[in-house]
Amino acid sequence: MYLDHNHNLYVDRPFTAFIRFIVLIGCCVAVLCSFTTLAKERTADENNVSQIIKWAKDGVTTKIIFPAGDYRFSEPLVIENDNLNLLGSGKNHTILTLVNHKPMLIEAIGNNAIISDLTLDGNNQQQGYYDTIFRFNKSKGHRFERVIFKRSTKGAILPISGWALDGLFVSHCEFVDINKYAIHIFNRNTEKRGELITSIDQIIVENSVFRKGYFIGVTMDSGNDRRNESVVNGKKVGRRYTESVDMNSSIIRDNIFEKTKKFHIAGVQATGIIMERNVFEGMTDDAEPGANAIHFEQFSRDLEFYDNTFYMADTVPKRFPYISIAGTEGHVRVSQKRSSDTYKEWTYFYEGGPERRANVKCAAHGHTDISCKRDVHVYGVRNVYLAGNTFNASSKISSYLLIKEGENIQIGTRKDGRVSLNSFLGGDNKTRKINLIGHDEGTCDVLILPNQQISKSNVSIPRVDFDKPACSMNKPIVIQ
Question: What's the predicted TM-score (pTM) here?
Answer without folding.
Answer: 0.89
